[in-house]
Design brief:
The protein is an alpha/beta fold and about 350 residues long. It is about 40% helix and about 20% strand. Strands 2-8-7-6-5-3-4 form a seven-stranded mixed sheet, sandwiched between helices. The site of pyridoxal-5'-phosphate has 12 residues, from helix 3.
Length: about 350
């Protein structure tokens, strides 16, 4: 009953022995010459899955998002997103640094914006305004507590984008946590977005790697920008193999992570030292503590009981479930939460 339970993020997963074995047996080549068969296999697999022309393996989801922004915009353009978006909050201001564009962060609900909001945000063309060029949606939405869009909400946003010659990018870092819930098809996502970024290093359990998906010309350009950012990797098949393994073995089990998060949310909502739990939709649980109890205090306490998690505000805490959290870890966590007295 005394092991460490790490709820900080679904990025903390370690490669399993089977994944490592698969990595070690992958055929390799030099991917800067597009000559690594395993990288090529992963890219083809992802492109086919989403029924897009091409894909590009990258070291991180930050890079795949940044490449998409770079390829879809010119300096002095503007990107529209929810104010909770990763591209706005957690990419070091890369939209400005890499692409010299402005951002128009909208206040949505739990990280989700509507077609009406996007329509209103599109700027008229004047010398003194940036040009609205790109919309980025995040699915699931991390800071929104793992909330998600369904395709029927995305379609009207796509129409607004088409109407105003704007591109639509999906930050799908945790898209598969959504798809195991909605049962929507990857191909329909492919049809709805100009580009898609998927993280394999989160719930899917690969140690490193994200994939950017789009049409041929877009990926050709992204490849050049990946190189100038220093993201051209040589025998990257070693890592791509882990991603192939993750895609082939770890998608369905994301449903377990979502279910365990729901159980945590259920327990948390009945505890008297917690005021609100954001609706739990996938594998993220965000909750607020009562007045007088700070997130740091609570997190320090949990640490003494072998539970690690992170603050999401002065009185806000986040739990993320993943393949390292089994039923025993869940039971142990629930026990500790119930025992806490403020
Ligand atoms: C994790 C994450 C990313 C990418 O993060 P990296 O750590 O750079 O791989 C992008 N978007 C969202 C929503 C994320 O949660």
């Amino acid at each position: 009953m005394n092991r460490m339970i790490n709820l900080i993020s679904d990025t903390v997963t370690l490669p399993t022995p089977k994944m490592k074995e698969f990595m070690m047996s992958a055929p390799l080549g030099d991917d800067v010459f597009a000559d690594d068969p395993t990288v090529n296999k992963l890219q083809d697999m992802m492109a086919n899955m989403f029924q897009k022309e091409a894909a590009l393996f990258c070291p991180s989801g930050t890079m795949t998002n940044q490449l998409a922004i770079k390829c879809h915009t010119n300096p002095l353009d503007e990107l529209i997103c929810d104010h909770y978006s990763h591209v706005y909050q957690y990419e070091t201001g890369g939209y400005a640094f890499n692409s010299a564009i402005a951002v128009n962060p909208l206040i949505g609900r739990n990280g989700k914006i509507t077609a009406a909001q996007v329509k209103e945000a599109v700027k008229p063309v004047y010398d003194w305004l940036p040009i609205s060029k790109l919309v980025v949606l995040e699915n699931s939405c991390n800071k929104g507590g793992g909330s998600y869009y369904q395709l029927e909400e995305i379609k009207p946003i796509q129409s607004i984008c088409e109407e105003h010659s704007m591109k639509l990018h999906l930050d799908g870092a945790r898209l598969f946590n959504v798809l195991v819930e909605t049962k929507e098809k990857c191909a329909d996502y492919g049809k709805s977005f100009d580009s898609i970024s998927i993280c394999l290093s989160k719930g899917l359990g690969a140690p490193v790697g994200s994939v950017l998906i789009g049409d041929k010309e877009f990926i050709r350009q992204a490849r050049r920008f990946r190189k100038v950012m220093g993201g051209g990797m040589r025998q990257a098949g070693l890592l791509a193999a882990a991603c192939i393994y993750a895609m082939e073995n770890n998608i369905e089990r994301l449903k377990d992570d979502n279910n365990r998060a729901a159980q945590l949310g259920e327990v948390l909502s009945r505890l008297d030292y917690i005021t609100t739990v954001r609706p739990v939709k996938t594998n993220i649980v965000i909750f607020d503590l009562i007045d007088g109890l700070t997130a740091n205090e609570f997190i320090d306490y949990l640490k003494t009981r072998n539970i690690l998690c992170s603050a999401f505000g002065p009185q806000t805490v986040r739990f993320v479930t993943h393949m390292g959290i089994d039923d025993q870890s869940l039971e142990q966590t629930i026990q500790v939460l119930k025992e806490y007295k403020y």
